[in-house]
Amino acid sequence: MIALAGAMCASAGHAVGMQPIVGGESAAIDDYPYAAYLVDARGNQYCGATVLSSTQVLTAAHCALAIRESDLGVVVGRERVASNAGQKVGVSDVWVAPGYRDPLSGDDIAVLTLSESVSAPAARLPRSSDDHLYRAGTMATVVGWGRLFENGPKPGALRAADVPLVSDSECADVFSSFDADTMVCAGWDEGGIDACQGDSGGPLLVDGTVIGIVSWGDGCAEPGVPGVYTRVSTYSDDLRSDLVRSTGD
């Protein structure tokens, strides 16, 4: 069962929440310099994020709302959690998609405005018209600092795994709450590779473009059960407009 920001939540017969990388490999932060993670007031990593600009990061709504805004921290440029590399900054504002209620209902997306600028490069966003990035069978990469298997230990360092995108119809057959407008699924039929607890909020990437946000699932890397991600292209026009307003470009 997947934990949702430390709490347990279930609906439609499926557990939801923070997913780690199961069956992946160690990854270098230099290869994913926009990969970031969230920490609580004690400095504990609990979710992932993606740098959108020098002052904003993208994450899951359930991650952004898991703790008080004043306790939220964002770490960028750090491959190993125990190191002092990169930057750790606070959060000055939290935007959550207006329609968000819980991950199974969709709109599991949030943008955190940072209390100070970071030097990490920004990830590419898809355009609302980039349907080709979501074709079934397209290989995507999920990265994060989550658990190595369900309820298992965290690796303490960045990991990455390749998973194929799953068709909307196939995902709807698995999850009755699947919404093709706000969600996309990825995973192997045989299981064994997946995001897991602690990976929520992190990016699902196709050719360096963040097409998804780790959102929810049923267990970690179970056969025939893909992971569910927020479909970023649905929100990309609004995200781009907000980035222009925040940067003045």
Structure keywords:
six-stranded antiparallel barrel; six-stranded antiparallel β-barrel; Thrombin, subunit H; globular; mainly beta; 249 residues; single chain; disordered N terminus
Describe this structure in words.
The chain folds into two domains: about 10-25 and about 125-235, Beta Barrel (Thrombin, subunit H), CATH 2.40.10; about 35-120 and about 235-245, Beta Barrel (Thrombin, subunit H). The termini are far apart. The longest helix is centred in the C-terminal third of the chain and has 12 residues, at about 235-245. The chain contains three helices and 15 strands. It has about 250 residues and is mainly β. Strand 13 and strand 14 form a beta hairpin. The strands form three sheets. Strands 10-11-12-15-14-13 form a six-stranded antiparallel beta barrel. Strands 4-5-6-9-8-7 form a six-stranded antiparallel beta barrel. The chain is about 10% helix and about 30% strand. The radius of gyration is 16 Å and the shape is globular.
Number of structural domains: 2
Strand neighbour order, sheet with most strands: 10-11-12-15-14-13
Shape: globular
Structural class: mainly beta
Here the CATH topology of the largest domain equals Thrombin, subunit H
Largest sheet properties: 6 strands, antiparallel, barrel
Low-confidence parts:
1-20
Reading off the top of the CATH hierarchy, the class of the largest domain is best stated as: Mainly Beta
Protein name: Secreted trypsin-like serine protease
Family: Belongs to the peptidase S1 family.
Keywords: Disulfide bond, Hydrolase, Protease, Serine protease
GO molecular function: serine-type endopeptidase activity
